[in-house]
Amino acid sequence: MIIKKKTNWFKMLFEWNGSVLPQLLPRLLLLLLFSLAVVCFKPFLLEHNLHINPAAFTLFGITLAIFLGFRNNVSYDRFWEGRKLWGALLNDTRSLARQSISLINDKEYETKRDEFTNLLIAFVYSLKHQLRHTDSEEDLKRLLENEFAESLKEVRYKPIIILRELGNWIKKAKADGKIDSVTQLAFEENLNKLSDIVGGCERIASTPIPYTYSVLLHRTVYIYCFMLPFGFVETLGWITPFIIVFIAYTFVALEAIADELEDPFGKQPNDLALDTMAEMIENTLLELNDKKINPLKTNSDYYIT
Amino acid sequence: MIIKKKTNWFKMLFEWNGSVLPQLLPRLLLLLLFSLAVVCFKPFLLEHNLHINPAAFTLFGITLAIFLGFRNNVSYDRFWEGRKLWGALLNDTRSLARQSISLINDKEYETKRDEFTNLLIAFVYSLKHQLRHTDSEEDLKRLLENEFAESLKEVRYKPIIILRELGNWIKKAKADGKIDSVTQLAFEENLNKLSDIVGGCERIASTPIPYTYSVLLHRTVYIYCFMLPFGFVETLGWITPFIIVFIAYTFVALEAIADELEDPFGKQPNDLALDTMAEMIENTLLELNDKKINPLKTNSDYYIT
Amino acid sequence: MIIKKKTNWFKMLFEWNGSVLPQLLPRLLLLLLFSLAVVCFKPFLLEHNLHINPAAFTLFGITLAIFLGFRNNVSYDRFWEGRKLWGALLNDTRSLARQSISLINDKEYETKRDEFTNLLIAFVYSLKHQLRHTDSEEDLKRLLENEFAESLKEVRYKPIIILRELGNWIKKAKADGKIDSVTQLAFEENLNKLSDIVGGCERIASTPIPYTYSVLLHRTVYIYCFMLPFGFVETLGWITPFIIVFIAYTFVALEAIADELEDPFGKQPNDLALDTMAEMIENTLLELNDKKINPLKTNSDYYIT
Amino acid sequence: MIIKKKTNWFKMLFEWNGSVLPQLLPRLLLLLLFSLAVVCFKPFLLEHNLHINPAAFTLFGITLAIFLGFRNNVSYDRFWEGRKLWGALLNDTRSLARQSISLINDKEYETKRDEFTNLLIAFVYSLKHQLRHTDSEEDLKRLLENEFAESLKEVRYKPIIILRELGNWIKKAKADGKIDSVTQLAFEENLNKLSDIVGGCERIASTPIPYTYSVLLHRTVYIYCFMLPFGFVETLGWITPFIIVFIAYTFVALEAIADELEDPFGKQPNDLALDTMAEMIENTLLELNDKKINPLKTNSDYYIT
Amino acid sequence: MIIKKKTNWFKMLFEWNGSVLPQLLPRLLLLLLFSLAVVCFKPFLLEHNLHINPAAFTLFGITLAIFLGFRNNVSYDRFWEGRKLWGALLNDTRSLARQSISLINDKEYETKRDEFTNLLIAFVYSLKHQLRHTDSEEDLKRLLENEFAESLKEVRYKPIIILRELGNWIKKAKADGKIDSVTQLAFEENLNKLSDIVGGCERIASTPIPYTYSVLLHRTVYIYCFMLPFGFVETLGWITPFIIVFIAYTFVALEAIADELEDPFGKQPNDLALDTMAEMIENTLLELNDKKINPLKTNSDYYIT
Fold first, then answer.
1. pLDDT in tens, D181-221
2. CB contact under 8 A, B49 and C182
3. d(CA B207, CA B213)
4. Phi and psi torsions of E269, nearest 5°
5. CB–CB contact C18 B220 (8 Å)
6. For chain E, where are the alpha helices, taking DSSP H only?
């Protein structure tokens, strides 16, 4: 996602990169040309009674705004729920890493602890790759034992299998007599939360807003915009097409943003910064284990640290 | 539910399958004919003062939009809550399957573990069948011991009895000395969550939006649409009936979508893909137990995997 | 609450029972007569400048719609929260009944278990009677030991005392050595949830929407409707009074529905089907204890099973 | 808070006590006089072009309604969250009182149990007094041991210190060998919830809606109302000032209600009935301990029991 | 954040400090001059048909209000979520401090307990400094042992490392035989909640509302305001520019408030009073440990105590 430093209110009016304007420009130009054509044919259209009552436009425009507001709301909620799930991922992996330190009272366990932390980090990366349909091989090889990384290649729900491995690590600690059932439960609760996070992300990724909604609103927004010139043809001076394009811009841009936010795990400019977040989780878990950490590699423009 | 690959913005305008348009077409044609009739009788209607002030229409149309927005919101919330419950079903069955592995430290338990997993899968399918009022016999026979499957035939709340069986499986593991009370509690918590999921689904399925709301809005939407021609009869040129149908389409289509989403467990095109979800849960639970899994049978158009 | 089978879109327009129309009819007729009177006195009113700018009506009508939308939202939230609480009641009583089976490993406990289940069922009925201010004596006698049922007569917060009894049943099981502290905790958590449910229902029942809101909106809606004729008197042909009544119907009906839903535990047609829900909980708990159950007595029109 | 018995729809129109009308009357009269003055100076104003386009009023009025709707929502949410917190207070104190009975298996503990219950009741009253900035001395003396009540005088966060005392009571029970760590945890969880309730109430009481919002909306509402006459001066007959006052009433009254609900723990007529709720909690806790209870002292008009 | 004592409704109209007006004044003056210029050039503009249909303005203004309402909602939710997180911080630190008293039965532990409390207070301050990007050195030196405070200098995620230290304090108490696993779990749960709070605050601070939204709305609001004069040029008397500025003020001020609330942890006048809250938490924790506390240093204008 794109995050800019605050500029003053005046410069912000001419912001270019942070907006969906570039992508919408061709459509808006088309509308501008169309409106200008309507201005040219004004006498013909008025003569043949081919204009529309502007009252119909007010009525319909506001109706459209209400429905678009609904779509907007739903998309933003999905975006924010996705963000919350990744926030919970940060919290729970931190809690688990902390518990591996303060609940296991054994100095020899330090190397084993690194194994646990690496499993946690691998869990995060494998979730990221699953959500983006990218290849997790490189990251998993870097973090896991060769054999286990290899066996994961064929696995469809990788984060779940890594989660099982985390459970097994704790099982072993119990078998070694380092923890009792009660302490195992403390870990177990956080593992359950990780399971909820995986499922939550899968839910958002696999179930978009019902397609019918998207089609209905998309269609209505564009038909509406291209009918606007007929509504204002009577009063249409040479300045009006620009107003029409401005009105259309707001409707069309909101629909476009809502469409981008709908799938927050994608790679469009307004989607979540999964790369930075994964790297940040890796850093904070390493710091908890007294490892040295580097500054975030990924562009600091994309995430406020 | 119908999920399409993203097409470009222009093609999306002419989408046919993903919309409720086909089902609404007859009604909209009726409205078109009615509007055209009003155009024909324009002089007669104006003479007898049988037209309506357009201000009344703006006022009322926006009011209607606000109320329809409310209905829409509520329906979508039900849809999304249904989806969340099935997401939680995935998470909790996964957690239980993982716990049956990492909380029971006994190699001999492997065959018994398959029994547990099968109970979980049977639980999912029986819930699906209960919500859709379909016959669960085939699925239960495939997954459960013959005797138990047979005894379930007469049972009214099947998922609850399967849940009791899951509880008994854990009870036996405790009686066998494989787990203690504390560990039993860890299972128990997830069983409680499954109980909440069953009840949550039953709640949505058994309690629709108060019928009075539906009647009121349905009635208002249609009466409104069929009165629209009287509002625009004064300015009604030959182009206006098409505008009226376009406005009506938005209102009527939104009402239709809201009506479909209200019961998310049905089999209408916009309802939840329970079949795919049940199959997906089966797959991920089997994978957790190191079983080979097949690609999803159900049409991949209906669920993004 | 009234639940009808889906009829087709056309028949639904003429639905009578499922709507609040019957109750509102006298008021709407009054408004119709009033509007017709305004039509008759049109010349007099215009002469004395006793009509109102229609712009004021558009402005005010939409404002009213927004505020009514808020009232509607709040009322529906109360209705749905009430439903959720009764859904949670189902889930938690089922969980407790299941726990009484799978957490207590003793064959002799079977008759005692029935006692526990009966306490749970009595809890449900006593809550229903408290919320509806009806007499719980009959139900409690049917389910509880005579002596205890008798002692409950004088009690003001009956469900809470039954809850204490459930706690004491578990205390006895522990004293008998059937369960340990850990298992007692598992029961205890679900008892806490039952306590939350009682309090939640009492909260909704004892704290309506601030009365000032109701008065303000009620007053505004009716004054608005009876001023409508003055707004349209200029353009008021013989068809307009019917339009006015139609607009008024939507506002007035929404206010009436919101008013009914506000107290979801009442006995008005749109309130929750507490009778059926209590009976359903009784059935599912009995089935869990391998008892035979009968079909629901209460009219299946009122609850989808 | 004011709760009235339902009257019929007609009488409700003339409700006086349950509304904020009395408090607003002077301002509305001022507006009426102002409007009448505008009617008198109509020719002068029109001549000097000192009237305003009514379109600006429609636009702005609806905008204002949307923003006021937001303010309203937020205020009501605070009111309802406050109510939920006091509902949770009821639930958790009941749960703790029940646990003091069913988790401690010792007949001698009965007098000590009364001490515990009194601490719970004192907790409730001290929270009430803290939220209302009233003196808790009398209530604390009535309920607590003299010495402890005396020491609380100097304490700033009284409920928290009482909470610590509750924790110490349980600590003593454990030291006496009446409960083990596991049972202590069951109490501890409910104490944590009480801590959350105190903090939640403090949060609502200490952090009002950002003052800038209140100022902005207050200012806009009143300026808007006093500009209304200029918008309708052209069409302003002798009936219009009354319409203007009616429109203004709705806006101004909603702002006033929102302002009252914002701080739900105050003593204004629409605030929460903390007195009755505290008394009700005292009653139900005493009944749980088999004490006789009296009917609620506080006016039954204020709380539905 | 600025909190004022309630003034009467009339004085509130002229409030200056509590509003964003000062900051917006230059822009509004610019708009006023621009509007006056339009009034001067009225004949020229009308002649060349350079005015805009006012219907377009009504339509667009309401649309804008709906979208601005959405932005507003989201910003306020972030503000309130931030407040809730700091409220939870208060609750959980209080709970932990109480547990360090009532769960550890040892008189000698009193000095160690102060260490624990100081760690909690240091946790709060370090979170505050992290969120505000200020230097925590002074506060940490005051509260922690020199050596540990020194080692924290290099640490990036300070609150997390202090949290680990809290975990280690409990680990030590267990190693000393003061508590068992079960009691450790009770602490552990509250530590998990602290971890959630840190992550929640980081989430809000690091992920603003998608920048595209802000740009789109900012741009639309200002362009809209500067086009208003062209919409009212036809009816534009000398009074209208003031109306236009008044309308613009509402839109622009709401956008400005929403922009301030978006990042609730900043130091703008409407942001959260983190300083006072941190000081208040310190006070209440010290009081729990029977220390004397001073009145809040920070200006009581900023927080209601």
1. 999 999 999 999 999 999 999 999 999 888 888 888 999 99
2. no
3. 13
4. -55, -30
5. no
6. 9-12, 21-40, 42-47, 54-102, 110-132, 137-143, 146-152, 158-175, 181-206, 211-232, 240-262, 274-288
Structure confidence at residue B85 (pLDDT): 97
- Contacting residues of A for E163, CB less than 8 Å apart: 98
- For residue A221, give the nearest of A15, A38, A14, A66 by alpha carbon: A66
DSSP for A202-259 reads HHHHH--S-HHHHHHHHHHHHHHHHHHHHHHTTT--TTHHHHHHHHHHHHHHHHHHHH
- For residues B179-184, average pLDDT: 93
Sign of the torsion formed by the C-alpha atoms of C191, C193, C197 and C203? positive
Mean pLDDT estimate for chain D:
88
Q: Phi and psi dihedrals of B19, rounded to 5?
A: -120, 165
Is B183 buried (19+), middle (13-18) or exposed (0-12) by CB count in 10 A? buried
* Tokens found for residue C170: 């578990």
Per-residue pLDDT tens digits for B260-278: 899 999 888 788 999 999 9
| Non-local CB neighbours of E30 within 8 Å, separated by 6+ positions | none
CB-based contact A220 B15, cutoff 8 Å: no
Using a 10 angstrom Cβ sphere, with 0-12 exposed, 13-18 middle and 19 or more buried, the burial of residue B261 is buried
CA pair distance B232, D71, nearest whole angstrom = 37
Provide the ipTM: 0.90
Classify residue E253 as exposed, middle or buried by CB count within 10 Å of its CB (0-12, 13-18, 19+).
buried
Residue C243: inside a domain = no
Tokens of C286: 């009995």
Given a cut of 80, whether residue C300 has pLDDT beyond it is no
Q: Decide: E190 and E93 in contact? Cβ < 8 Å.
A: no
Does residue A165 lie in a domain region? yes
Q: Is A125 left (phi over 0), alpha (psi -120 to 50) or beta?
A: alpha
Q: Which two tokens stand for residue B19?
A: 């919309």
CB A56 within 8 A of CB B62: no
Q: What is the mean pLDDT of chain C?
A: 88
Residue closest to E195 by CA, chosen among E97, E271, E127, E101:
E127
The answer to whether residue E124 is domain-embedded is yes
B290: helix, strand or coil? coil
Is-above-0.90 flag for pTM?
Answer: yes
**Each residue's pLDDT tens digit, E13-41:** 777 666 677 888 999 999 999 999 998 88
Query: Are A269 and A112 contacting, i.e. CB atoms less than 8 angstroms apart?
Result: no
- Bigger pLDDT: D212 vs D98: D98
| CA dist list (Å): A176 to A113, A169, A240 | 14, 11, 79
What are the structure tokens assigned to B217, written together? 């809005």
Residue ranges making up the domain that contains D286 = 30-291
Residues in chain E, overall count: 305
Are B200 and C66 an interchain contact pair (Cβ–Cβ within 8 Å)? no
Chain B positions in Cβ-Cβ contact with residue C99 (cut-off 8 Å): 167, 188
Query: Which residue type, as a one-letter code, is found at position E190?
Result: N
Q: Which residues in A lie closer than 8 A to residue B292 (C-beta atoms)? A: none
In terms of Cβ atoms closer than 10 Å to its own Cβ (0-12, 13-18, 19+), residue A86 is buried
| pLDDT of E51 above 80 | no
Percent of residues, chain B, with pLDDT higher than 90: 57
Q: How far is CA B236 from CA A51, A52, B243, C249, in A?
A: 10, 8, 10, 27
Tens digits of residue pLDDT in D232-264: 887 777 788 888 899 899 999 999 999 889 999
Q: Which residues of chain A have pLDDT under 50?
A: 1, 300-302, 305
Tell me the three state secondary structure of residue C248. helix
How many structural domains does chain B have?
A: 1
Q: Is residue E264 part of a domain?
A: yes
Q: Which chains touch E (3 or more CB pairs under 8 A)?
A: A, D
